[in-house]
Structures are given as C-alpha cells and as structure tokens.
Amino acid sequence: MSKEARMRATINQKLTEMGERERLKELLRAKLTECGWKDQMKAHCKEVIKEKGLEHVTVEDLVVEITPKGRALVPDSVKKELLHRIRAFLAQHATV
Amino acid sequence: MKMEEVSMSSLDNSKLEGLAQDILSDLVEDACLGLCFEVHRAVKQGYFFLDDTDQESMRDFEIVDQPGLDVFGQVYNQWKNKECVCPNCSRSIAASRFAPHLEKCLGMGRNSSRIANRRIVTGNNTNNKSESDQEDNDDVNDNDWSYGAEKKAKKRKSDKVCFFNYKKSVVEFPHLYINSVLVYLFVHL
C-alpha cells in the first residue's frame, strides 16, 4: 500500500470513528432539502416511474436514472460549504 | 496493530484537495442513493402519489388576493354599516353598538348591574321619600349582597376591632397606663 493510500485509509477511518462522516451526511441532506434539490429530484422520479410503470420499477432503475442527474444538480453553494468543512477536518487530522 | 503515522510534508496540497473532492463525491452519492431507496419504498408501499390532486380541484381552492376580500373570497366588513332594531325598545341601533345597548336595555350583563347598584346608593343618600325607605327595609332582610346589611355588619366589625386594639395596647405599652393605675390606687387608699 502506498503512502497516499494509507493516508486515505487513515483519514476515512478517522472520519467515521469521530462521527464527522455522519454529521457531514446530515448537513448535506439538510442543505439539499433546503435548496429544493430533493423536490426537483422527486419530480424527476415521478417522470421515471410514469415511464417505467408503477408496478415494475426497481431500485436499479431509479439509481441509474437519478444518480447522474442528482450529482449534476447539486448547487455550488452547497458543494462549497461541504468542501470547506472537509478541508478543515483534513487540516486538523491529516497531520501526525 | 498500530497504524503507521504519515506526515504532511510528503503530500501535495493537490492530493489533499483530490481527497476532499472524493469525500464529497461519496457523500453526494450517499444522498442520492438514500433518496432512491426512499422513493422506491414509497412507490411499493403505495404512498408516493398520495399528495397529487388534479388541476381542476386545485383551482377551486386557490388563495384569493383581491382588495376587500379575505383569502377565502368572503366579504369581511359587510356588517359595518348595517343597523339593527332592538327587540326591547324598538330603536334602530348601529351594529357595532348593538351588544352594549342590549346589555343596558335588558338589564343583564356586568355593567348594567353596576350602574343599577350605583343608582341605588345615590338614591339612598339624597332621596328620603317612602319609596327609598321601603327599598332599605327590603334590603336589610336580604341575606345576599345589599347596601343596608353591609353597613350594619361593617359597624359591628369595627367595634370588635377597637376593643381588641385597646387590650393589645395595654399589654404592649404598660408604662403609659401606670399613671392612671397610680391615680386609681391613690384615690382609693
């Protein structure tokens, strides 16, 4: 395992252990609901379901349709805020 | 197993930035998947389309935004200028003054009893006709609130109070009463 890979593993472990990952998840969810992203995506889901048929739609269908669009539609302000918090965490914990 | 410690100096800032982006990407994907699961469950359980209504009925209940109307479209100040006829005195009264007028007219409600009470008091003080005397006698026999009975009861109470005070003062300030006691003894011995 390279130094970089080890560092990544350490960081990820710390993120989870310290509860920061959960907090970031909650923060992201709240921000996305606030800015209307969730409603937008739900509307898109409705279209997909009407297309595929209510009875036959599967999780896979939804994932394939929703995820790319979801990633693209996240507003920049939300991304910036989350990145800010992640960088702060890294600055604190990426050192020895 | 001890995790090997890694130092910052061997890493570029760009690598850290890349790591931050990856973490963000993971979080966003997590959120999307969460949404997919939520929607899929709602679809299969049958409550996903529950809050949809057709356009027709939506238009029926739209919020009204015109001057002079409330949000339901009703006129809210149409009773301002109307007049009502009092069933007691058959006078025409304005709608907003109707309730207080009715109170006084029928002799019910808090204020009308206060006014009547006041009239009785002034009637007792200034009027010495037999009419008011009769009223007085009636009041005395009444066990409920009445001016005459209150007066008598009050007087008795004040007498009792005076008596207690006298006794108390003798007990508390005996030196003030010694003079009178000495005089008494002097006279009788």
Automatic annotation (TrEMBL), chain A:
Keywords, ordered alphabetically: Activator, Chromatin regulator, mRNA transport, Nucleus, Protein transport, Transcription, Transcription regulation, Translocation, Transport
GO biological process: chromatin organization; mRNA export from nucleus; protein transport; transcription elongation by RNA polymerase II
Coiled coil spans: none
One Gene Ontology term, aspect cellular component: DUBm complex
Subcellular location: Nucleus, Nucleoplasm
Family: Belongs to the ENY2 family.
Subunit structure as annotated in this protein's UniProt entry: Component of the nuclear pore complex (NPC)-associated TREX-2 complex (transcription and export complex 2). Component of the SAGA transcription coactivator-HAT complex. Within the SAGA complex, participates to a subcomplex of SAGA called the DUB module (deubiquitination module).
Role noted for this protein: Involved in mRNA export coupled transcription activation by association with both the TREX-2 and the SAGA complexes. The transcription regulatory histone acetylation (HAT) complex SAGA is a multiprotein complex that activates transcription by remodeling chromatin and mediating histone acetylation and deubiquitination. Within the SAGA complex, participates to a subcomplex that specifically deubiquitinates histones. The SAGA complex is recruited to specific gene promoters by activators, where it is required for transcription. Involved in mRNA export coupled transcription activation by association with both the TREX-2 and the SAGA complexes. The transcription regulatory histone acetylation (HAT) complex SAGA is a multiprotein complex that activates transcription by remodeling chromatin and mediating histone acetylation and deubiquitination. Within the SAGA complex, participates in a subcomplex that specifically deubiquitinates histones. The SAGA complex is recruited to specific gene promoters by activators, where it is required for transcription.
Protein name: Transcription and mRNA export factor ENY2
Organism from which the protein derives: Sphaeramia orbicularis
Gene designation per UniProt: eny2
Automatic annotation (TrEMBL), chain B:
Gene3D superfamilies named in the record: Classic Zinc Finger
InterPro entries assigned: SAGA_su_Sgf11, SGF11
Family note: Belongs to the SGF11 family.
Localization annotation: Nucleus
Chain spans, region Disordered: 117-144
Protein name (record): Ataxin-7-like protein 3
Superkingdom classification of source: Eukaryota
Gene (UniProt): ATXN7L3
Quaternary structure (record): Component of some SAGA transcription coactivator-HAT complexes. Within the SAGA complex, participates to a subcomplex of SAGA called the DUB module (deubiquitination module).
Organism: Sphaeramia orbicularis
Zn finger region (SGF11-type): 84-105
Domain characteristics, as noted in the entry: The long N-terminal helix forms part of the 'assembly lobe' of the SAGA deubiquitination module.
Primary location class: nucleus
Keywords (A to Z) from UniProt: Activator, Chromatin regulator, Metal-binding, Nucleus, Transcription, Transcription regulation, Zinc, Zinc-finger
Acidic residues bias: start-end ranges: 133-142
A GO CC term assigned to this protein in UniProt: SAGA complex
